[in-house]
Write a structure and sequence with these properties.
By secondary structure, this protein is α/β, with parallel strands linked by helices. The chain is built from six helices and five strands; from the N terminus they run βαβαβαααβαβ. The longest helix has 13 residues.
């Protein structure tokens, strides 16, 4: 056999069939890491509130929980300013699946909170719980000075292993 003229056939990678998503196709797929950066008063928080509460976006249903109108099982909204902003204050308080942390002392120790979430996702037993791991969204809003402490740099590469989506909002 002439080795110079032989051609090795490259086979396609075998993929598992993906079930169709209920998400609007313009949205980032889950899990994802999204950064929103704009000047003050440019509508960053308003954009995120629309993403979370609009039925055309992430408020369009949950594949694993028909009673939950939100795509995410849990939303952890971490922000020192969320209770001062009119849109976040109004919308987040009406959503059942939101855990809002705005206390500065708690935010300074947010790395422990994030580590606990990671551990709970790692320890999740789908057979015991009889449902898939929760889809969790972590929103870091106006936390540029605390991002290193919150280990968000590590999350930006490991989020998918914990079934997290991450949104970072900054100026």
């Amino acid at each position: 056999m002439d080795k110079k003229n032989s051609v090795l056939k490259i086979l396609p990678v075998k993929k598992e069939a993906e079930k169709p998503s209920i998400l609007n196709p313009i949205l980032p797929i889950f899990p994802s890491c999204t950064c929103i950066v704009a000047p003050p008063r440019a509508g960053k928080s308003n954009l995120v509130m629309n993403l979370l509460a609009n039925p055309n976006f992430y408020y369009g249903g949950n594949e694993n929980d028909p009673d939950n109108p939100s795509y995410f099982d849990e939303i952890h909204y971490l922000s020192p300013t969320s209770r001062f902003d009119k849109s976040t204050k109004t919308i987040l308080s009406k959503m059942d699946n939101v855990i809002q942390i705005d206390d500065m002392e708690e935010l300074q120790n947010i790395a422990f909170y994030v580590q606990a979430l990671q551990q709970s996702q790692k320890d999740w037993d789908e057979e015991k719980e009889q449902r898939p791991r929760p889809k969790i969204l972590l929103v870091f809003d106006d936390m540029v000075d605390l991002l290193v402490q919150s280990k968000v740099d590590m999350l930006s590469t490991k989020f998918r292993h914990y079934n997290f989506s991450v949104i970072c909002i900054s100026q």
